[in-house]
Amino acid sequence: MLIIAGLGNPGAKYSENRHNIGFMAVDAIHRRHRFSPWSKKFKAEIAEGEIGGEKVLLMKPQTFMNLSGEAVGEAMRFYKLKPADIVAIHDELDLPAGKARMKTGGGHGGHNGLKSLDAHCGKDYRRLRLGIGHPGDKERVHGHVLGDFAKVDRTWLDPLLDAIADNADLLLQPDESKLMNKLALATGGKEEPTKAKAEKPAGQSHIRQARNNAQPKKLPETGPMAEMLKRMFSKKDD
């Protein structure tokens, strides 16, 4: 089983906040795939279903953001799962709005939801980071994060959420490059080169490429240099 946990704050007051983009993503997955109705367990709203033939538990912790790990950790222990079996979807200040990145482990970067998951689940879970942009001033961060998405944000937010739902099966795969490309294209970005595309052709080191591209120099046919070369390379009698 895989746990996909969207991070956010419970209640209608917070439902459209930038901080709740994790909840929004999990709701989009729930709408697109066959899942049970939402129910309450593990201090969270949960729904069970399958994606790509794999059992998945969707979670929206109801403990408020800074205690998210209590809910996810309880579910992880109940199902005897490892941190690697968890995907947390959350807002990311340090990414431009609409950008997405996937990573495993690492620091919490001051994100209270991740800080709580680190404490209750360990650090080696996967994180789908969804950019909400930075307001540019540290003093405005709190209001930005807990502010609602603007109407103009819907031009990238809705396609991003739809693309996450459409490609949720890629969340189950260890190679995140396919998912990142799908999300980038959905929000008007460019496809990023995969590892295979980025590698140089086999056996073509930069030295060999330089040799292949180099033009052979024409040897002199007359003059002292020509005579010297003839003596050096002419066949000697046995």
Looking across the biggest beta sheet, what order are the strands in? 2-3-4-1-5-7-6
Percent helix, as a range, is 25-40%
Backbone shape: elongated
What order do the SSEs take from the amino end to the carboxyl end, as H and E? Answer: EHEEEHEEHEHHHHHH
Please count the helical segments: 9
Helix-strand category: alpha/beta
Largest sheet: 7 strands, mixed
Question: What is the arithmetic mean of pLDDT?
Answer: 84
What percentage of the residues does DSSP assign to strands (E)?
Answer: 15-25%
- Rg over CA atoms, rounded to whole Å, is 27 Å
Low-pLDDT stretches: 196-211
End-to-end gap: 80 Å
Strand segment tally: 7
Describe this structure as you would to a colleague:
- The chain is of the alpha/beta class and 238 residues long.
- The model is unreliable at 196-211 (pLDDT under 50).
- It starts with a strand and ends in a 5-residue tail after the last helix.
- The protein has a seven-stranded mixed beta sheet.
- Helices cover 35% and strands 18% of the residues.
- It has helices at 21-32, 68-78, 112-121, 141-145, 154-166, 177-186, 195-198, 206-213, 224-233; strands spanning 2-6, 39-41, 44-51, 54-61, 86-92, 100-104, 126-131.
- It has nine helices and seven strands, in the order βαβββαββαβαααααα.
